[in-house]
Amino acid sequence: MSSRTHGPNILLTGTPGTGKTTLGTELGPQRTGLNYINIGDVAKEEELYDGYDAEYHCPVLDEDRVIDELEEAISNGGNVVDYHSCEFFPERWFDIVFVLRTDNSVLYKRLEERGYTGKKLSDNIECEIFQTLLDEARESYKPEIVHELQSSTPDQMEENLENIANWIDQWKASHP
User: Fold this and answer.
1) Which family does the record assign (predicted)?
2) Are the C-beta atoms of residues 48 and 83 closer than 8 Å to each other?
């Protein structure tokens, strides 16, 4: 997508607790020159909600309003977008999609530390076991732009950071 004036658009997706925010903030402006967009933060700042889910104890994202809010920034390029779901984003938005995956025992501990309990905890672990978000990404985007990354250990997370930063450099070199 050579029309992007500020660089590629990258989607980081995966089950909560897989390391999207850690990776996204590391890939942000200081390291790559790309803008980091955490959809949860944008939704909170702009109040882009459509109700509250009492079962999961969280607000319900208004996906249409999120799309409207971000359309201009995304069309200019140069963004790393972080969100646990991906099927509602327009396919044209992203040059590459990375689905972070984490070993279930590691993920369980991370989610417990965040205060996840009961159905919210078990549903997120099941989501990872059944690779729900990987399948969602593969169904929503061209297969050649969807990449699965293991994100269980600090070494894997550092390797992911290096590989994505290298990919960004290559993209920029081929899109002057």
Assistant:
1) Belongs to the adenylate kinase family. AK6 subfamily.
2) no
The verdict on whether residue 114 carries a ligand-binding annotation is: yes
20 carries a ligand binding annotation: yes
In degrees and rounded to multiples of 5, residue 152 shows phi and psi of: -100, -30
CA nearest to 99, candidates 4, 9, 19: 19
* The dihedral sign for the CA sequence 148, 144, 90, 130: negative
19 carries a ligand binding annotation: yes
| 17 appears as a binding residue in the annotation | yes
**Helix H or strand E encompassing 69:** helix 63-76
Mean pLDDT of successive 10-residue stretches along the chain, which has 176 residues: 78 98 94 96 96 91 97 96 97 97 97 95 97 97 97 98 97 92
**What's the pTM value of the predicted model, to 2 decimals?**
0.95
